[in-house]
Amino acid sequence: MKDLKHLIYFEDLLLEANNELVQQAQKDGKVCVGYVCENTPEPLMNLEGTFSTRLRAPRTGSMEMATYYLTSFLCEYSRALLERALEGGYQFLDCLVSPDGCSMMNRAVENMELLGTVGKDKEHFFNEFMEIPMKGDDNGLNLYTLQCTNHILNPLHENYGIDISDAAIRKAVEKHNHLCEVIRAIGEFRKGPRPAITGYEFAVITLVTYVAPHDLLMDKLEETLEELKTREPMEENAFRARVLVVGSEVDDTDFIKLIEESGAYVCADRYCYGSLPGRDPIVLNDDEDALTQVCREYMLRGQCPRYMDTPKMNGRRIYVNELAKEYEADGIIYEQMKFCDPWAYEKMLGSHILKNEFGYPVLAVDRPYAIGTSGQMRTRVQAFVESIEIKKIQGGVKIG
Predict the structure, then answer these.
(1) Per-residue pLDDT tens digits for 66-81
(2) What pLDDT shows up at residue 369?
(3) pLDDT for the residue 252
């Protein structure tokens, strides 16, 4: 296939947390809102005069300093972020919002604050910690809306004069939905026997939308969508199997590249930083305030193991099954960041249920934050692909 026109540009944006579009938006007078978890509603951080960027630590090497403060038993994502903060990599932030999705991330951000690694010399900088629900019910929704008000909206208004009215939130949701519609339309080209976009390319494009100002990206995203409509698709047997990647935080596109280099096409992405359900539009009505509707949408559609009530737990496996059928996955790769407590239990139970109750071939793996050129991971994926091929030769298995 012909190279996508803007792919190198998108890849370059991922090389630094403080990328050129973040710098441009701040020069234009916009407030940069950093956040560390998918449970922070994006539209509330992309009001008029603000933009969000989800923290990453590109090109992570040694994490010795962060390990000193956090110990080696915390997940590498939290340690990588603290290491980058200690290096001064997040001084560009105007504020930082951290939900208690997990205790490890809270410890990382608390150390950033205590060690003075963020907000230095910024008069209006604020570092907010918000509680999020563990059940998807009315009590959880009341908690969610209160926390978003107290730890996102009010601080933005009080420190930077940002309009947090219902009308402002609705306008932010409208822009958010346009971005989501474009990303989901691009993602549709992963379907069918001859996809027009690789899983790696889609991962890069989706990831960029989490770390760069949306309005500065839209022209290139829309141009990419139009480009795909006439792009010559790949050959029907370009990959040996189609896989759905499920699990915890993935902001390392090299992991997706490694999977595809091992013969498996990544046809769908149910992981933190992915498009499913992270790029689902939010449909608002006129009968209820926008904030409540946004929080309800994030709470009900969220696939994070932070939610521990039975309907949400069962719903996570049902959702993966539905995605696997929609995107015609031959198998599922269930990944978990090493030492990630919430996803450790979820991966163990989820991979077991998807294999034994839904009938999917499942590969469950622990992975480092930065995969590099891991020969062990490559070997495991290659063996998984071969096992799927053997099942196909033997007549396959009943799934769904």
Answers:
(1) 999 999 999 999 999 9
(2) 93
(3) 94
- Residue 269 pLDDT more than 70? yes
Region 26-54: mean pLDDT is 97
At 78, list the tokens. 């939290």
- Structure tokens that stand for 273 in this block: 């930083």
Q: Cα–Cα distance between 370 and 349 in angstroms, integer?
A: 25
Alpha carbon 64 to its chain centroid, in Å, reads 26
Model's pTM, two decimal places? 0.96
Write the DSSP assignment of 346-388 as a string of letters.
Answer: HHHHHHHHHHHTS---EEEEEE-SS-TT-HHHHHHHHHHHHHH
How confident is the model over 280-303, as a mean pLDDT? Answer: 97
Residue 400: per-residue pLDDT: 55
Phi, psi angles (nearest 5°) of residue 156: -65, -40
Long-range contacts of 14-18 (CB under 8 A, 24+ apart): 14/56, 14/58, 14/204, 14/207, 14/208, 14/211, 14/253, 15/58, 15/59, 16/58, 17/53, 17/55, 17/56, 17/57, 17/58, 17/84, 17/89, 17/90, 17/92, 17/211, 18/89, 18/90, 18/92
Structure tokens at 184: 């989901």
